Amino acid sequence: MAALRAGLLGVGMMGRHHARVLREIEGVDLVAIADPGGDPHGVAGDLPVLPHIEALIDAGIDVAVVAVPTRFHEDAALKLAAAGVHTLVEKPIAETVEAGRRMVEAFASAGLVGAVGHIERFNPALQQLRRRLEAGDLGNVYQIATRRQGPFPARIADVGVAKDLASHDVDLTAWVAQSEYVNVFAQTTFKSGREYEDMIAITGRLASGVIVNHLVNWLSPMKERVTIVTGEKGAFVADTATGDLTFYANGTIPLEWESVSSFRGVSEGDVTRFAFAKREPLRVEHEAFRDAVLGLPSDVVTMEQGLRTLAVVEAALASARTSHARAL
């Protein structure tokens, strides 16, 4: 079977990595690159840098990756859908839920694969975590808490920290728990002089009853990417920056010191750090997209799922503006 002809729109900070991976995976040939801003990172190689999406489509591509700023996602995706091109759009799916809905409808009506680049689903620590939760290693799940913080990235200019970063946590939480959000409450701050929020704290609940908490900001000198899942048998801690997964077990040996035992509620048990293969998440994501286009079993993040994530994030932002919880 001939390799899929791939086009890439956008070769900025994220697009340069897409270019590298598209050249590495089997069954895909990167044949065209477009970016009206040129090639700042020198990733085009022998390919000319085309000026716009129309030129990319004219190159005769089967699949495309859209890695331009969020406000341009809808226009590019709708043109690609009209041209019959399967498309992976970087997260968030779009600037608004309405725009995302139009994208979902366009790809569904055309019978094309429309996917969103929620890369954290392909992080080895989170994939291991989900498998262990499905196997019952934690028993009943009580809470999922995430922390995602670090310095402000100058490359982000058109959205706030909620859509750029918190969308990761919303998507991975619903995916790991296999349960959708039913309500959220949030608070935001604006400390860096931009029109968009640079810190958000979200609390909410999933349909399964699991409580969720997300702390996300661009105001910390300390970079952190942590997901903690607490349940009846202990707690899993996934560090997605390193791909590590650790399990803190509830102890089974009763404490003889009664007052300490009643204070702690649960006793401390063994700590296990798991060893497993750690493949690059972006490569696994691209393989999933390729397989979905070929009609093979795939864990690709669909546009419908990406739209649901955006709806949760927008509900959180609306909650922050009104100081009231929002149902979903």
UniProtKB/TrEMBL annotation:
Domain Gfo/Idh/MocA-like oxidoreductase N-terminal, residue spans: 5-118
Keywords attached to this entry: NAD
Pfam families hit by this protein: GFO_IDH_MocA (PF01408), GFO_IDH_MocA_C3 (PF22725)
Residue intervals of the GFO/IDH/MocA-like oxidoreductase domain: 127-236
Protein name per Swiss-Prot or TrEMBL: Gfo/Idh/MocA family oxidoreductase
Highest classification ranks of the organism: Bacteria, Bacillati, Actinomycetota, Actinomycetes, Micrococcales
